[in-house]
Amino acid sequence: MSQRITINPITRLEGHGKIEIFLDEQGEVRDAFWQVVELRGFERFCVGRPAEEMTRIAPNICGVCPSAHHMAASKALDALYGVAPTPTAKLLRELEFNAFIIEDHYIHFFFLAAPDFILGPDASPAERNILGVIGSLGQEIGKQVIDIRKRNRDIIRLLFSKAPHPEGGLPGGVPRGIAEEDRKTLMATADDSVNFALFALDLFKKEVLGKKALKDLILSDAYALDTYSMALVDENDRVSFYDGTVKVIGPDGREFVRFHPDDYLDHIAEWVEPWTTIKFCFLKQLGWKGLVEGDDTSLYRVAPLARLNVASGMATPLAQKEYDLFFETLGEPPVPHTLAMHWARLICALQAAERNQSIVRDPLLTSRDIRNMNLKLTRKGVGCVEAPRGTLFHHYETDERGILTRVNLIVATQNNAGPICLSIKKAARAFVRGPDVKEGFLNRVEMAFRAYDPCLACATHSLPGGIPLVVNLRDASGALIRTLTRD
Amino acid sequence: MWNTVSKGTAAVERAVKQYLPPCQEQCPINEDIQRTNVLISLLPDDPETAAPAILQIGDYLYDKNPFFSVCGYVCGLCELECNYHAKGGAIKRRLLKRFISDTYIPHLETREEWSLIKHKENVAIVGGGPAGLMAGFDLSRRGYRVTIFEASDRLGGALWLIPRYRLPERVLTSTLEGMVRMVGMDVRLNTRIGQGKWTLEKLRNEGFKAIFIAQGTPTPRTLTFGRNQVEGQDLSGVMYGQTFLYEVSHGNIRPNYFTGKKVLVIGGGNVAFDVARTARRLGGETSIVALECEDKASRDGIPADVEEIRGAWEEGIRIIYSRGVEKIIGESERMKGLVCPRCVRVYDEKGFNPAFDPADTLVLDGDVLIVTVGQGPDWTALQEEGLVDGHGRLAVDPVTLQSRNRKPVFVGGDLRKIGFMVEAMQDGLVAAESIERYLQDRDMTEGRKRVFEVQDIPMRRHYLTEPEVVWIPPEKRMHFQLFERGFTLTEAIEEARRCLACGPCISCKACVSIGLRDSLNPAEVLTDRCCGCGICVSACFYSAIQLKDVDMGRISLTDAFKCKSCGMCVSSCPSGARTLGEDALEAALMTAAAGLQNSPGAVP
Amino acid sequence: MGEKPKIAICWLGACGGCDEAVVDLNEGLLEVAEAVSIELWPVAMDFKYDHLRNFGKNELAVGLVSGHVRNSEHEEVAHLLRERCRIIIGLGTCACFGGTPAMANLISREEILDTVYVKAPSVVNPLGKLPQPETEWEGETLVLPEFMDHVYALNQVISVDYFIPGCPPPPELIKNGIRAVLTDDLPPKGSTLAPRKALCETCARNKTKPIRLEIHGPIRRIHEVEADPEICFLAEGILCMGPATRTGCGETCIKTNIPCRGCFGPTPGITDPGSRFISSLAALLKVGTTGDPEAVMASIGDPVGYLYRFTHPVSTLGERCLRKATEETP
Amino acid sequence: MGYEPKLVCFSCKFGWGYLRDLDGPKEASVFLIPVECSGKLDAIHLLKVFKEGADGVLILACEEGHCHFQEGNFRALKMLYLLEEVLWAHGIQKERVRIAFSLDPEGRGIPDRIVQMKNSLAALGPLDRALL
């Protein structure tokens, strides 16, 4: 009598989705499906809008990583109007983007992921959340987390009006400059962010790596996946967020391809499955080979772990030290351990904080020259950034008046869609057995996708949908035997 | 059927503090110009159905201005101030009134008089000119028993000096006769007050409780040069403009009376031009000698209207500017010519004080000389009646027109101050009001002086150019028929439509009067919704809206006097903070919506 | 009843921005967590949906529901929340008016699916497969929620007691909203917990505006122009939806020198701010004697995109109602 | 041909048919709404009428330069140009809204303008209400 387990809705992530697990007669997992249920159609209803409005429409794709879409849209507009941002504008954009990387990585680690580590995967759902984390780490640390996030988001609000949904990115510039008086608070924020990053890493080493059960979990085969990896790297092959070329390495670590974001269509393709609204990205040259890992896969992973695997190092000293420790502990790149993404995420946040430390001290920061006005409409523009959740592409085409005729988006979590499915399948096979399934084990299945910090609103940017995770157990005929309630 | 109501909500509201269109503010009797213009613009365009409608407009005009038909031929004061002046040409208001009067005069002749109960005191009016008649008309309407004492053999006074080619006789006679008949005034012709037989004292004894003296200015002014009279004015061939026009109006001058004669007319005013153009029509080779210079804009500019000058010039009349008359050359008791030194200055700070350059003298020869240098009142009668002050000037209160010396006596018209016909009519109305206050022993001056603010020109993209007024070609004008062609019905409607109706609704209400609209409530602001964005200010074409900072922040305010309740601001307000009260449009939309839903027309 | 009042924070068709706004209460979030027990908050807490089903009718004090309704599960959840929460607050512009994704209402569902899954240049979909409500896999069926062909605002599906607009809603408004519910000092049902007037009321640029606000000649788009930070955008011919949008956001966009796009929705008494603003623009745009009105009006480029960016489902043409007749409206 | 297009006709009282009481013979599918001035019309009025079931709207405005309220007719024209794209986005062709600038005090021309408009609407066929 085969069984079916549904985790619906999946929680502590951005977006709506559910997991279906099918067991065979012996209670072994035949297969598991991660279903995303959102679809909105930004790519279609943005056609007809003026291109420059995209820096205000695109952020509405996702409330957790709107700055990523705002920045990708700004860069796409730069390309569309064939204009480079003024040096000060570029600095201000990087300042905001790094601040966003910092606050976004910390909301994921502390709000969404930490409950599984600090309280443990088997903690009761009622406590297994941010309030539980603050309860166990103490109000002091809780306040620090909240404060550092607040101050970085204030940088976003200062430059682009709102967080979430920053607005006003313009081709070749930014809407407002920074006054000299602002510099003092910016410096304080940047410096404190670096200190906090180091604290977070120590916390991770103590609370996670320090606990044998969790370390084994990280190193366990259940959470390992061999796929290609893709990330943005700067001119000296270091991890980069705002700009750079896209580098892809194979499961064996050898460089597979390196391309300029404008040519993304030659390398990235999307596959459609009827049972989910998300599209699965794969390497076009290899063709779709199904949801498989190992040598003959064409799937690739993005986001923090991929960045470290792909780049030959971090762009800032302190982060570089953590980078070296990371590979000393987990082995030569490419590290397959999915849960290691949490650690990589903190290292990336450290680099962003260090980078901001130098940006806020740059004399050019407060100049008034924030707009490059010689715009020449080229009617096509691709903007690419390394969003917190992975490489993000915005591709716009317009008519002669700059009204959009085509919009194509490859969004961060889409790159990870295939690998997430595989990780969930592996975790389900490892932890789910027989008719009575303990809730904690289902949570371990969810930990498989949480590591990726998926953002389904982005991934599907097409249509909203889906309700939070509900667990139903059905017998082979599909009749409901028990509904697993978590209280 | 086209019908204009003038009672109830459709009545024009008495102006308190108010904007008026510039034409009405300029008109001495504040005629309802805008209302009647709009009514004309809404006339049906085919003559039969239009006629009764025109009569209704005429009746409305007649009610406040019995002389409106005459005004339609001679007065254009309102056009000088028309807002359209600067943008495409003033509205031809005079011709519009003339258009109405062409239909109205026959109707007036057979119109049934008003039945008025004359229960109040007897009032005597001395002088049957526009001022006297207007006072009598108004007082009779108020229930006073009015008797008009006219020195000459007909009413009308100076109106008879206006030549027939400008004012047709029938229009004048019907108007004068109509006024007397409509209000039932008692008229005593050929009775001159002031020479023994009739004195103010006698009138008092006859039971007249108040007397209004408006004898006008019958005596023509003689020609002077420096301090003294110009000699030679008694030569034959020398006459005075007034008496000349008076004789013409009586038909005592046979046509081509001046054929083959050279006629010289002295004077620069409209009357001088009337005289010259009449002389020209009587065959005379006419020239005008004016003291003033050609440039009308300058202080010494010639006073005659531009149209008069153009008409005279077209009719071959020579105009000689800046020339005085030093001497009249006579030969065997007949006038032969003039000695005319150049006039270098007409006025100085003290007033009329012409200066001449004797070196530059021109000698003009001519057979006839008509002196038209103004006219004055009959001073002796005034002195006898004790109406003058120490300096020999008329002792009269300018606001109430009451004589300072003798309380029951009131003075007005040209006698008091030379002016246009409509200014004399204004004096008549003012005197009537004063007489009633005097007789009812009420305060004489309270609420009399009312100042109106003038509405400026509404904003629009295209301002239309004025229609071209057609005159008979000059060579065909040598007769006393009208030389100016009036409006046809379509032309009148077109020109009335061009009127911008820039005055406020409450002094017009034409559209309410013919039932086109039922309410005119000004736009109302819901201050709890208005955020002070100012879009309504630019939506209003009449600048009736302004933003004001009040304690609750910046909100918009509507000037109820300027608002035309047209609804532009209501539809433009993004917060829906403006409303016109219950609006017929919303109601009509509801019914249409209901109708649309369940009406058939479904897809087959 | 010493127990803390229960609240649910749930998202339907949403991007998570409103939940981020709740997180942005920062320390306030801890205070809220003290005062109430959060029984549902998918983005941050593991309470599964069944947990909510176990509550009785109106057992929860308030439901903070963000996101519009676009598929069958949204609708189901909306009704679920309505039954269990005494007060439902529509949180954020998507819940109140439909939000940006509601612009999809102008495009048929089929065309969206076709564009996203077949025509997109990066898609490799030889068989033209589309997401299906049901998919068979080895004897099992995988179910996806059924997508409606229209995006509904929340109160077109369930009766909503109060609204907190904004994209995202400012954290102070959320905090005041929650406090108002807990201390029960609430305005009449159906009202919006935000200031009542339009943006010009509080916008600093309103003071320096010319007396007659007029736009001569074409509208200028934000990338073509370096706007003066002191002068009203409309006075410089740049489209700003401020006059048609409720204030309360602190004009952060305008302070960042970019014009308002109307995310706070209409002011009280107005349901379709976009269409209302058409007439305002018709009044503002002075074409001048020689100008060509058609060209000047066309200079706006994308009227639909500006006017109905956030409010299409509540606009005159876009309005539809899913509510069953039995639902009493607030 | 069963299809009878439903038409709403706004007419300016100062330019059209004020000399004849307009509620003449009632045609089921024609709704005549006199207004003080075409400029007073709000975009929402037109949109509501389409939403309620109209297939077309005819606005009878005064001739250029002859608006009693100065520029109401021009205001209406500007509003219609702005409305065109909004209507088209909802599947309503711009031919379904027409504005005529003229003066017709007797309203003699109104009936055949309505017939003319209904014919052009009939040619367009029933309004596709998918997006309404």
Give an account of the 3D structure:
By secondary structure, chain A is α+β, with helices and mostly antiparallel strands. Chain A has 15 helices and 16 strands. Chain A is 42% helix and 18% strand. In chain A, helix 4 crosses helix 5 (130-137), helix 6 (139-160) crosses helix 7 (180-209) and helix 7 (180-209) packs antiparallel against helix 12. Chain B is 31% helix and 17% strand. In chain B, a hairpin with a 2-residue loop joins strand 14 and strand 15. A 5-stranded parallel sheet of chain B has the order 4-3-2-5-18. Chain B has a 5-stranded parallel sheet with strand order 9-16-10-11-12. In chain B, strands 13-14-15 form a 3-stranded antiparallel sheet, with no helix packed on it. Chain B has 19 helices and 23 strands. Chain B folds into 4 domains: 8-111 and 458-513, no CATH class; 122-218 and 377-439, FAD/NAD(P)-binding domain; 220-376, FAD/NAD(P)-binding domain, CATH 3.50.50.60; 524-597, Alpha-Beta Plaits, CATH 3.30.70.3270. With 132 residues, chain D is an alpha/beta fold. Chain D has helices at 43-52, 72-89, 110-124, and strands at 7-12, 30-35, 56-61, 97-101. Chain D starts with 6 loop residues before the first strand and ends in an 8-residue tail after the last helix. In chain D, 63% of the residues are buried.
Set down the secondary structure blueprint.
The complex is a heterotetramer of chains A (487), B (604), C (330) and D (132).
Chain A: E1 3-7, E2 17-23, E3 29-36, E4 39-41, H1 42-45, H2 54-57, H3 66-80, H4 87-119, H5 130-137, H6 139-160, H7 180-209, H8 212-219, E5 228-233, E6 245-249, E7 255-259, H9 264-267, E8 268-272, E9 279-283, E10 300-301, H10 304-310, H11 317-330, H12 340-359, E11 380-387, E12 390-398, E13 404-410, H13 412-431, H14 439-450, H15 456-460, E14 462-463, E15 471-474, E16 480-484
Parallel strand pairs in A: 5-10
Antiparallel strand pairs in A: 1-2, 1-15, 2-3, 4-14, 5-6, 6-7, 8-9, 11-12, 12-13, 15-16
Helix pairs in contact in A: 4-5, 4-6, 4-7, 4-12, 5-6, 6-7, 7-12, 10-12, 11-12, 13-14
Chain B: E1 19-20, H1 22-26, H2 33-41, H3 47-64, H4 68-74, H5 77-81, H6 93-109, E2 122-126, H7 130-141, E3 145-149, H8 169-183, E4 186-188, H9 200-205, E5 208-213, E6 219-220, E7 224-225, E8 228-229, E9 238-240, H10 241-249, E10 262-266, H11 270-281, E11 285-289, H12 306-314, E12 318-320, E13 327-331, E14 334-348, E15 351-365, E16 368-371, E17 375-376, H13 379-384, E18 409-411, H14 421-439, E19 453-454, H15 489-498, H16 510-513, E20 524-525, H17 535-539, E21 545-550, E22 553-558, H18 568-572, E23 578-579, H19 584-598
Parallel strand pairs in B: 1-19, 2-3, 2-5, 3-4, 5-18, 9-16, 10-11, 10-16, 11-12
Antiparallel strand pairs in B: 6-17, 7-8, 13-14, 14-15, 20-23, 21-22
Chain C: E1 6-11, H1 17-23, H2 27-35, E2 37-40, H3 49-53, E3 60-66, E4 69-71, H4 72-84, E5 85-91, H5 92-97, H6 109-119, E6 123-124, E7 134-137, E8 140-143, E9 147-152, E10 162-164, H7 171-182, E11 215-216, H8 252-255, H9 273-284, E12 285-286, H10 293-298, H11 303-307
Parallel strand pairs in C: 1-2, 1-3, 3-5, 5-10, 11-12
Antiparallel strand pairs in C: 4-9, 7-8
